[in-house]
Amino acid sequence: MQQCDTNAPKLYKQLVYYYSLLDRYSPTYHLLLCFQKLNIITIIYLSIVKFILTFAKYIEMKKNEFYYVNYADRMVISNLLYWQEKIQNYLIEFYGGNRINPLGTTFGDCISKSFYLLDYARDNPTMFRGVVSDNMLQAGAIIEYRIGDIYLYEERQQHVLIDIFCSAPWNCLPQPITETRKGSAPWLIADIIEEITSDSSIKGILKVAAIPRAIESYKSIGFEENPDGSREMILTEERALQFLEEYKLRWR
Q1: Contacts of 138 (CB under 8 A, 6+ apart)
Q2: pLDDT tens, 149-191?
Q3: Strand 206-209 with 157-167, pairing
């Protein structure tokens, strides 16, 4: 009688047991043999699929790698001006050229935030932070180091306020296009966290005034709604470091 490998799949062990009971020339024997071959083929097929999916994920990660910029130089300003040009193009292509149509959407938010981002970056280049991929600015933010209240009835603390946060227009459309680069926003948050947690005086505290549509996205990072401030969300040092560690393990 054939011995069954205890580490083999349950179905395979059952097949081996049935083989031992059957005559080698019986039709049932050959039928079970076919099932065994099919099982092996399935395992091989699933292994190939797993390899393809893993490789595809690797390619997607390499495609969507970004580098951090912490100053609004001429390249950044040029990119922000290009955002305005693309916004006009997308308004025509996706929204019939009417600025009212995208109101209440992520792209509608991008229209207003990108304008203020350009204005602030010009006047305060050292407050600008962004991420670039394929020589194009994919997301940008204005951050401000402050000393102030985080929670009512507690001491004033030094923290970082994310004043404006905006992804590139092609990353805010209702459907992906050739220029779309996924993951720029969380990558930028991770880089900002890495910057501020390297300064021991900041204690890694981030504060942002989130619009309603962005609240869930901030929560997925670890921000918590501040019960003492309307629309304010706080990312503590502990949650910031936890997010950064998990993000690096997954994407970098």
Answers
A1: 66, 130, 131, 132, 167, 168, 171, 181, 184
A2: 887 778 888 889 999 999 999 999 999 999 999 999 999 999 9
A3: parallel
CB-based burial label for 143 (10 Å; 0-12, 13-18, 19+): buried
- Which of 103, 104, 126, 128 is closest to 118 using CA atoms? 128
Q: Which of 123, 127, 147 is nearest to 202 (CA)?
A: 147
If we measure between CA atoms, which residue out of 23, 139, 31 comes closest to residue 76? 139
The predicted pLDDT at position 4 comes to 46
Contact predicate 243/193, CB 8 Å: yes
- pLDDT tens for residues 37-46? 666 667 776 7
Q: How far is CA 156 from CA 27, 147, 197, 200, 225, in A?
A: 83, 6, 18, 16, 18
Distance CA 135, CA 75 (A): 9
